[in-house]
Amino acid sequence: MEDDRNHKHHVHNPYYPFSGAAEWTLAKFLAENLTQAQVNRFLKLHWVLSLIMFVTMLLIMINCCSSVKMQNRPSHQPSSC
Question: How far apart are alpha carbons 4 and 23 in whole angstroms?
């Protein structure tokens, strides 16, 4: 796995490129039980698109908050994370 260009991601998340076990399980279910056309239709459902947008916005907010937190942390104190 060392030669894998995504090895650094797998170290922190064994389900990469999926966010975790739940997303991996859903993808596995879809791949095993639906045709590609059916998966495409599923992914275009309003509910799925809304969920994807919601999660994306949460990740952006978390990333921004982490960046601000890092910028405001005094340099002489160790990280609590």
Answer: 21
Q: What is the pLDDT along the chain (81 residues), one digit of tens a residue?
A: 446 677 777 788 888 888 889 889 999 999 999 999 999 999 899 998 998 888 888 888 888 887 766 666 666 655 555
Q: Which residue has the tokens 């969920």?
A: 51
Continuous segment of H or E residues that includes residue 67: helix 46-72
| DSSP state letter for 76 | T
- Residue 58's φ and ψ, nearest 5 degrees, are -60, -45
pTM of the model: 0.52
